[in-house]
């Protein structure tokens, strides 16, 4: 058996058309060895292979078009809490990347695309082959509960945060489009009136709506 795989054929296309390939037969549906009767490279950068192939099971001769998607190494910067990790990921060069989309890094962790830099500009979406740097945020999220006081009303809100992100007493957060100042934070074993608590330790954050002051 030849050590070749059926389409899609990452890295398969070479300078010369191969003499045989494993392909799925359009007649007998077998994934089997095909003798290549004719092969021609076409398309941009010669990465489309036009074939006439003969099935070794039913001897039917059929036409195949194979596309070779080259792998590219994309530099990535992953923001993980306070750290920024510099690494890279291998992607098919035609893979479309979009800001806000999820992407898994080789370590199996989930990330969100926060920015795409390509050709010295920031793009909302583009193909992996165009990307200079991909900016990611590691999404190991926890849900943080907030009680927000406005006058005599208290509303509850749940906010997704990175587990390592901190909430500080005195910090102003935007909740429901309103600036709210944190006045205490409840954890499993204490109430914090001063300082910061990591999101994963928070049981509830107490805040109240404030009016913006411009100095
Ligand atoms: Zn066949």
The global form is elongated
Q: What is Rg?
A: 27 Å
Uncertain segments: 1-13
- The tally of helices reads 0
Notes on the protein architecture:
With 215 residues, the protein is an all-beta fold. The chain has three domains: 20-67, N-terminal domain of TfIIb, CATH 2.20.25; 71-138, no CATH class; 141-209. It is built from no helices and 20 strands. The protein has strands at 20-24, 31-42, 48-55, 61-67, 71-80, 83-92, 96-98, 102-104, 110-118, 121-123, 125-127, 133-138, 141-150, 153-162, 166-168, 172-175, 178-187, 191-192, 196-198, 202-209. The strands form five sheets. Strands 5, 6, 8, 9, 10 and 12 form a six-stranded mixed beta sheet that branches. A hairpin with a 2-residue loop joins strand 9 (110-118) and strand 10. It is elongated, with a radius of gyration of 27 Å. The N and C termini lie far apart (77 Å). The model is unreliable at 1-13 (pLDDT under 50).
Short description:
The protein is an all-beta fold and 215 residues long.
Overview features:
215 residues, mainly beta, N-terminal domain of TfIIb, 3 domains, six-stranded mixed beta sheet, elongated, binds zinc ion
Helix-strand blueprint:
Elements: E1 20-24, E2 31-42, E3 48-55, E4 61-67, E5 71-80, E6 83-92, E7 96-98, E8 102-104, E9 110-118, E10 121-123, E11 125-127, E12 133-138, E13 141-150, E14 153-162, E15 166-168, E16 172-175, E17 178-187, E18 191-192, E19 196-198, E20 202-209
Parallel strand pairs: 5-12, 13-20
Antiparallel strand pairs: 1-2, 2-3, 3-4, 5-6, 7-11, 8-9, 9-10, 9-12, 13-14, 15-19, 16-17, 17-18, 17-20
This protein binds zinc ion (ZN).
């Amino acid at each position: 058996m030849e050590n070749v795989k059926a389409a899609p054929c990452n890295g398969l296309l070479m300078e010369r058309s191969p003499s045989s390939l494993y392909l799925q037969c359009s007649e007998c549906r077998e994934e089997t060895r095909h003798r290549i009767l004719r092969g021609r490279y076409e398309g941009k950068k010669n990465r489309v292979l036009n074939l006439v192939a003969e099935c070794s099971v039913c001897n039917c001769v059929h036409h195949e078009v194979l596309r070779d998607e080259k792998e590219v190494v994309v530099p990535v910067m992953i923001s993980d809490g306070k750290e920024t990790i510099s690494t890279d990921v291998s992607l098919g060069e035609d893979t479309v990347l979009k800001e806000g989309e999820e992407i898994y890094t080789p370590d199996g962790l989930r990330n969100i695309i926060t920015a795409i830099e390509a050709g010295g500009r920031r793009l909302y979406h583009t193909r992996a082959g165009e990307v200079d740097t991909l900016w990611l945020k590691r999404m190991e999220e926890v849900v943080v509960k907030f009680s927000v006081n406005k006058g005599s009303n208290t509303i509850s809100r749940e906010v997704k945060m990175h587990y390592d992100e901190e909430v500080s007493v005195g910090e102003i957060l935007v909740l429901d489009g309103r600036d709210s100042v944190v006045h205490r934070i409840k954890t499993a074993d204490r109430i914090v009136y001063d300082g910061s608590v990591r999101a994963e330790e928070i049981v509830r954050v107490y805040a109240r709506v404030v009016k913006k002051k411009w100095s």
